[in-house]
Amino acid sequence: MAYETRQSSGGTAVRHGGIQRHRSISKRSRTLASRRRLAVGVVTLDRNISSFELSDNTVDPSGSSYLLISFGQNESETHARALLADAMNHGPVQWLTFASFSPVSRRPIEGAIRSCRNGVRIAIIGNQFDVLQCAALARSLGALENEIRKLITQSSDLPIYCAHCRQTSRVVGTPGSVVVCSACARSVEIHAHFSESKGCFLASDARARTLP
Questions:
Q1: For residue 24, what pLDDT is reported?
Q2: N or C: which end of the chain has fewer CB within 10 A?
Q3: Domain count, the chain
Q4: Higher pLDDT, 11 or 127
Q5: Per-residue pLDDT at 165 exceeds 50
């Protein structure tokens, strides 16, 4: 899958997904993230997603550097360009763009996040599935909540974690909807419980409520 990297002056060179000359997020940050993941349970949609969304096309000026990750084109790219312009006023910027979040795009994203310095601010822009999965990846690699901001440009798709086959799927629906798990072909109900560590909504057999 093709992707593109853009950067401001003073940023780090990226070639075909390879990141150079960045120090990684500190061991302490990774330890804190690990502890947080052990403690996290499930939280509601409003508590987890809305509280850290970007409200406009500006970045946190207190950041020491900026990593922008956008998915798709059109509206996502428009927002990313605006964030890029603002971030360049405050520090080095790296912008990665992808068609979607997938195993292919995951590798260069992981490399970029692992190479971030302390104080980085990460902005993730795109469809709900892509943004939530990417944010979960960033957390798993040591990024803290106040270092991540999300801008969801389209919310019809979302990630579900099937309680039966334990796979993550992209579906079109909202909490309360009944959809088909693409991994096990089971009809599942999407619950309004969101796991930060997995970046997914829980889904379980839609017949469970009616079984004797």
A1: 40
A2: C
A3: 2
A4: 127
A5: yes
My answer on whether 150 and 176 are in the same domain is no
Do 113 and 187 lie in a common domain?
Answer: no
Cα–Cα distance measured from residue 155 to residue 174, given in angstroms and rounded to the nearest whole number: 9
Tell whether 212 is covered by a domain.
no
**Tens digits of per-residue pLDDT, 82-97?**
999 999 999 999 999 9
My answer on whether 142 and 178 are in the same domain is no
The beta strand positions in the chain, using DSSP E, are: 3-7, 14-15, 18-19, 43-44, 65-71, 93-98, 120-127, 148-154, 157-162, 168-172, 178-180, 187-195, 200-205
- Copy the structure tokens of residue 38: 């052990």
Is residue 193 domain-shared with residue 91, that is, in the same domain? no
Euclidean distance between CA atoms 55 and 39, whole angstroms: 28
The residue among 93 and 212 whose pLDDT is bigger is 93
